[in-house]
Amino acid sequence: MKIKTLTINAIVAALYVVVTLVVAPFGFTNIQFRLSEMFNHLIVFDKKYFFGIVIGVLIANFFSPLGWYDLVFGVGQSAISLLIVILLNKYVKNVKVRMVLTTLVFSATMFIIAWELALVASLPFFYTWLTLAISEFIVLAVGAPIMYYINKRIDFKKIIN
User: 0.85 exceeded by the pTM?
Assistant: First the structure.
């Protein structure tokens, strides 16, 4: 990995952590408005953002009240979702459609976090999955146009390459 790519991923990870911790009370419950999840849209522009996002989730989840469970389930959910999106991106070239797919994939895979909360906090699985999916959908749906317009100004693909 080039130094530039490594540095950009370190910045993405740091931003993910900072934004997560700023809204921490709303980022670790069964209704997660984790604003940092909008950084998942970076994968739309280049798969090289994978490590920055995953490391950001890992570090942020060290501060989770759920302990090691969130390290396993949270990081796992992010990595699986990002890999699915990377695979889909091979077949979809339109950036806006990619952002919609990213939003849908991350919302659907929140079942992994619902499973975690069912195990750790004895929350009802399907209701928790519903609330998590809705909150993830809202954050990513609001974050998509923000990331799209930021990309128009700074070109995420060009920055990482």
Answer: yes
